Amino acid sequence: MKLSFSLVKQLAVPVVAAALIACQPASKATLADGQETEFNTAYLEQMGFVVESYQAAPMGGLIEVITNQGLVYTNADGSQLISGRIYDITAAEPVNLSDLSLNAMRQRDVAAWADSTIEYAAPDVKHVVYVFTDPSCGYCRQLHERLEDYLALGISVRYLAWPRTGLTGSAAKLLEQAWCADDQRQALTAIKQDQALPAANCEAPIADHYALGHKFGVRGTPAFVLPSGQLVPGLLPPQQLLAELER
């Protein structure tokens, strides 16, 4: 995960603010070697992170923290931040241990938001994938045009909203209209074909999906979340997606 420019600017924490943070109560965290440490989430919170969970990192002396902006690592007391990946290099091929944690997080989160997706269910379901979509995205339209091919292979598609131009752009408004429609599947197809829909009149989960995508590391659409939790950016044709799912 790369830190945004606005986040990097906040690294220059004033001395007074740092002193106040240090005085706040800390929670106990257990490191990989079994030792307990005083872990203070306030440093991360000052930088704009929302801390969701933390545990010992695979690398000694570090804490692995799941936040609203994804995965980061800190030192034992939470006062220093590392943005990067940890690899196990003991085997013939390196294993990305950070990705394993991220995949588990994505699995939990998409399951929590499953009821808010627009689902196109395969007649004979073998796999379920989540896809972040934007109606103005050409590759998203191509995927949707071939939707029956995915369904025929036993791949159900659950769409999540991810307007590439942000929550104030036209794509966000179109997605809101689709999610507020009585027939969401028909409405989503319609907006991807430039057909007009009635104005939205509901509390659509567009902002929640958009935040979820940022947390997952989505940078464009379409973006697939596989049952393993793996994030795959870009358009995967039906047979290529099936091969990926059956690896």
Automatic annotation (TrEMBL):
Places the protein is found: Periplasm
First-listed, main subcellular location of the protein, grouped into a coarse class: periplasm
Highest taxon in the source lineage: Bacteria
CDD domains named in the record: DsbA_DsbC_DsbG (cd03020)
Q: What range does the record give for the signal peptide?
A: 1-28
User: InterPro entries annotated for this entry?
Assistant: DiS-bond_Isoase_DsbC/G, DiS-bond_isomerase_DsbC/G_N, DiS-bond_isomerase_DsbC/G_N_sf, Thiol:disulfide_interchange, Thioredoxin-like_fold, Thioredoxin-like_sf
Q: Give the keywords, sorted.
A: Disulfide bond, Periplasm, Redox-active center, Signal
Ranges of residues in domain Disulphide bond isomerase DsbC/G N-terminal = 43-92
Residue ranges constituting the Thioredoxin-like fold domain according to the UniProt record:
122-245
Q: Which Pfam families match?
A: DsbC_N, Thioredoxin_2
General function of this protein: Required for disulfide bond formation in some periplasmic proteins. Acts by transferring its disulfide bond to other proteins and is reduced in the process.
PANTHER family, sorted: THIOL:DISULFIDE INTERCHANGE PROTEIN DSBC (PTHR35272:SF3), THIOL:DISULFIDE INTERCHANGE PROTEIN DSBC-RELATED (PTHR35272)
The record's similarity note reads:
Belongs to the thioredoxin family. DsbC subfamily.
Name of the protein this chain belongs to = Thiol:disulfide interchange protein
